[in-house]
Design a protein that fits this description.
alpha+beta, five-stranded mixed β-barrel, OB fold (Dihydrolipoamide Acetyltransferase, E2P), binds copper (II) ion, 98 residues, 41% strand
Amino acid sequence: MSKKYLLLLGLLLAFSQIVWADSKSLPWVNGEIRRVVKQNNTVVIKHEEIPNIGMSAMTMPFKVKDVGLLENLKPGDKVKFSVVEENQDLVITQIKPQ
Ligand SMILES: [Cu+2]
């Protein structure tokens, strides 16, 4: 394979991952809010398995794509949310009440 071909292939792969990250087909994951830290765009959630990033159930912090997503969330709330891996951060792209 030529270098040009490999570069094109790499670009295609990168692009398909961006499309995947933005797609609405991300699975909804059940969780319960533990802490909301608005100044860090962070929320701590006790979550069930997250199949699209291969993570089992645990309690951990997540970044949110937009601080507005944390509006009206408080500890104890049961939620559904979707996560993508972005620059080695796990980022919540959507979150709603269960
Ligand atoms: Cu986790």
